[in-house]
Amino acid sequence: MPEIKVTPLGAGQDVGRSCILVSIGGKNIMLDCGMHMGYNDDRRFPDFSYITQNGRLTEFLDCVIISHFHLDHCGALPFMSEMVGYDGPIYMTHPTKAICPILLEDFRKITVDKKGETNFFTSQMIKDCMKKVVPLNLHQTVQVDDELEIKAYYAGHVLGAAMVQIKVGSESVVYTGDYNMTPDRHLGAAWIDKCRPDILISESTYATTIRDSKRCRERDFLKKVHESIERGGKVLIPVFALGRAQELCILLETFWERMNLKAPIYFSTGLTEKANHYYKLFITWTNQKIRKTFVQRNMFEFKHIKAFDRSYADNPGPMVVFATPGMLHAGQSLQIFKKWAGNEKNMVIMPGYCVQGTIGHKILNGQRKLEMEGRSTLDVKLQVEYMSFSAHADAKGIMQLIRMAEPRNMLLVHGEAVKMEFLKGKIEQEFSIDCHMPANGETATVTTNPSVPVDISLNLLKREMALGGPLPDPKRPRTMHGTLIMKENSLKLVSSEQALKELGLNEHQLRFTCRVQLQDPHSDPDTLNRIYTHLKSVLKGYTIQHLPDGTVMVESIVIKVSSSAEDTSTKVLLLSWSYQDEDLGSFLSTLLKKGLPSGLC
Amino acid sequence: MKLYCLSGHPTLPCNVLKFKSTTIMLDCGLDTTSVLNFLPLPLVHSPRLSKLPSWVSKDGTINLEKELKECAGRVFVDSQPEFCLPERELLDLSTIDVILISNYHCMMALPYITEHTGFTGTVYATEPTLQIGRLLMEELVKFMERVPKAQSATCWKNKEIQRMLPGPLKDAVDVWTWKRSYSMQEVNSALSKVQLVGYSQKVELFGAVQVSPLSSGYSLGSSNWIIQSHHEKVAYVSGSSLLTTHPQPMDQSSLKNSDVLILTGLTQMPTANPDGMLGEFCSNLAMTIRAGGNVLVPCYSSGVIYDLLECLYQFIESANLGTTPFYFISPVANSSLEFSQIFAEWLCHNKQSKVYLPEPPFPHAELIQTNKLKHYPSIHGDFSSEFRQPCVVFTGHPSLRFGDVVHFMELWGKSGLNTIIFTEPDFSYLDALAPYQPLAMKCVYCPIDTRLNFHQVSKLLKEVQPLHVVCPEQYTQPPLTQSHRSDLMLELQPPPMPYRRCSVLNLPFRRRYERVYILPELANSLVPSEIKPGVSMATVSAVLHSKDNKHTLQSVPKPPPVPPSKKRKRVMEEPPVVLAPKPLLSGAVPLEAFLATLQKHGITEVKVEETADGHILHLQAEDTLIQLEEDGTHIVCDNNEPLRTTLRDLVLRFLQKL
């Protein structure tokens, strides 16, 4: 039985360093190649030695697919391709291809330039890695080789995020990456057709959450920002440069406009302008409303939001600052946080998920004293708020996607084990399908049961369909007979007659002749007539003919009558049939041996 | 398989393919050359046009004073311009299942088809094709609605009258079916039926046919189509280009191995080299401006104009045109320029990589930013106050019969300093200019048609090797004006099948196989036996299920166990229910081996008699005959059913069952 194997090297019962290996129909595919924000050691990257102990990965992998530009999905890519070694194709969508190298370079700068790490990938490596990227368009079927094909679907989540379908023959796997089932202020909702994959590999970040409506969350967010500003506080919103940031900017921009607010809004890093440019050029990836109106008004040109300078952090008075990165684990957002943490008037709003080990995660868990580098501690006095704005599907959304795709098996990654366990139960109960949740390095195996595609001769098919009638009768299924010819790689199903011809075989006729004696004091034609009437009444639904040459034909069985030379009332019936009519022939000879019923006229 | 040809225009095709129970319309081109027979629609009152004399036939018998006007020896219809629609009588258009669109120029008749024929199907097109197609339709509607004309001339269409008219009106075909422009409401309704597709996306139609668009390299989002089942493949090639302009390059390899290739949309200017024309365009433009004249470029609002602007972007500085204003006037000018920048996925590699920087892929963004290029929805409004001369104006419609271009013709036509440069190949420039004669302005004809020429297409066909080629009849002979140029036609072996408007072609197809799927349970139960090295066979008895044009074979369900009934006695009375008719037999029964087998079963008294074709075995104890021949065995056995079945099974041992 063919099998599909799925092994997470990262994101197995965990969030971070997503990297999932899939073996399907003899092909090996790596899905995502991310880094873990919670670690600074080897655990930062997936353990590629699982694939091979020594040497390059090229010969072990048929392709690598990146679902979107977040670093926990692509952060290990240059390390994998340039330092471990992989020269095959790397697939990602156009926006991902555009934005991913910028984030990688950012990541590299923070790690190498600020933290002084060595043995890390270089700028040149990022460039060389990106040269191996083949861009993917939505819904385009990309033939990786003769057998392996992949297809991208819209996933929402961030600009350019995609779900991918991987198909070999009739077996298939869908990997969702991160996705969002509800449209937001700048992106649409994920969509997939009823493609019935053998396995659906889904993220499960919010496996146990059913989130309230987006409107409420937005109102909450604006209220909190507004209150803080009113009392003269400073609001820090740690974000990733692209994605949630644009959504929140659109939200604040319209709010400021409506409320006529004067407090400044800043956006840290030089990326803003550039980021917004990407949104302008890839407007076809945003939601319908933005796409429809972009000629008249571009939603990504902000009036109230200005570029941030480091010195502004010490300015008096209220302000709102968007700063990167989003989990407070490094960079500008962390610097500003340290500055503002001591004042209870200030506020930090975490708009997204924070992985374990980051400061973001710690303060969200209520930690008020933080150990910083150099054994100093930091007292956290400012208000800490959490708003789930990160665009992941919640439990309802995941179930919705399962309903859309109708997978035969389910596999959860990118979530916490306890929450996955809960969702797994729900899925198994509601859809009666197996749900797997392998940990990192563990392999989930699914046996598939593919149908065998065969070429049937049109003659045979048409004959069969004509005989079967327009509506099949479930009580009396018709059986079709044919011969399957297997030659090289082709499988052809033809009628037996055609098979004889194609294979150059002669037909061998097997015939039977049987004489039956019968006491019937009538003339020969009368006896024949009596036999005819008798058979007519017994064999319903058969073709019975009384031929002028003195024979009776039942289907293709011939019956003749002659009188015995000695006794004219003893008749000799001659039955002759071919092997193809064996059942009927045998039946007839037995039937006629019993004689004719006396009631016959 | 049949092909119905509804349009005779080789670059604005409209064909219907019937393939495996699906009816597929390939493109929906609108022949706009009909408008050349009409008078221009001026935006502001034109004393010249209104004073044109009415046409009267030589003998004075025909006088359609209100409908026909004469200008410089040509006769024009004074009415709202009308278009020549695809043929609607050849087949019932409501039976069309899908319409496949190859590029935005080939969809302009869509509202006529989807809104007025009972069409209930789906239209497939790429996103740029839909968006830009919408702009072109919107522009057409606005051009017409801006200058409503009360008059709709019909008398001239009377057969008797039309016969008497001078050419080309006399020779115009099907004038009764010509229609005025559609409304914006019809456009919106038609376009709401479009389903977006991406290149190489596989779209299943009713499970029977798969269609897939391929990049054709001609314009943003332009596609060729593959229509195939598991065993047949039709390639539809329409408006393709191998030149490096802004769109993604043409996908040639996917066209390989098609049974039939339908070839339309070759270049209309086989003798004009696009690069040379571009050079001539620039030099004439610069010359006119330097001499203090204005340049008018009648053009469509999308397509070649992007390349012209890019060319000018590089040319402006070197030609010292930095201060010359460039105007692009169209109701959809702004949208067209904006839309061109957001389709990175559909652009050539060079332009794609610009987006990664991120920079706009087309340099006209910079021309606009630096105020060198300005765009206006029409000559009214801002344009009239900001307009400076000498200048360059890009505006439509290229037929010179409607749109803002009519105004510039009236304004600039009288001065020899000005130049009109034709770049669009769809209209003969002499015909386009006819209602403006006499004309002092210079005319330059630089048609830029990037579609395949005959040289390129024969090379392409050699590579992709279709079994048969179908094409418009125009491609099977040299152009009328250049009848000696045998290189300007298709020469193929076997010769292409030509079509013309209203042709119905039987495509040479023999379908012999269809795909079925054997379900795993049945597949596992099959017992293959090797017939000869590398060839095996297995007999299959199965139940066929056909649903949504997909066929599957399942194992025959086991009959429910016969209840061990009291009726047991009657069982023999019941005729056998034939579940599995016996297979065909093949092979021969070898005498020696068969005798040995008989012996093993206790049949020892066998008398063998040789005959012409084999042997007769006489089983003396049982009084039974077996006739063994090369291709047949005959068992004659009376009154001994158990013996007969034993013999039967013994014979079967030596034979192959199919």
Task: Describe, in plain words, how this protein is organized in 3D.
The complex is a heterodimer of chains A (601) and B (658). With 601 residues, chain A is α/β, with parallel strands linked by helices. Chain A has four domains: 1-208 and 389-445, Ribonuclease Z/Hydroxyacylglutathione hydrolase-like (Metallo-beta-lactamase, Chain A, 4-Layer Sandwich), CATH 3.60.15.10; 212-384, 3-Layer(aba) Sandwich (Rossmann fold); 453-501, no CATH class; 509-592, Alpha-D-phosphohexomutase, C-terminal domain (TATA-Binding Protein), CATH 3.30.310. Chain A has 16 helices and 30 strands. Chain A has a seven-stranded mixed beta sheet with strand order 6-5-4-3-2-1-22. A seven-stranded mixed beta sheet of chain A has the order 7-8-9-10-11-20-21, with helices on one face. In chain A, helix 3 (94-114) runs antiparallel to helix 4. The longest helix of chain A is centred in the first third of the chain and has 21 residues, at 94-114. Chain B is α/β, with parallel strands linked by helices. Chain B has three domains: 2-41 and 59-267 and 451-506, Metallo-beta-lactamase, Chain A (4-Layer Sandwich), CATH 3.60.15.10; 274-445, 3-Layer(aba) Sandwich (Rossmann fold), CATH 3.40.50.10890; 585-657, TATA-Binding Protein. Chain B is built from 17 helices and 32 strands. Chain B has a seven-stranded mixed beta sheet. Chain B has a seven-stranded mixed beta sheet with strand order 9-10-11-12-13-20-21, with no helix packed on it. In chain B, helix 13 links the parallel strand 18 (419-422) and strand 19. In chain B, helix 2 packs across helix 5 (184-191) and helix 3 runs antiparallel to helix 5. The longest helix of chain B is centred in the first third of the chain and has 20 residues, at 127-146. At the A-B interface, helix 3, helix 7, strand 23, helix 13 and strand 24 of A face helix 8, strand 23, strand 25, strand 26 and strand 27 of B.
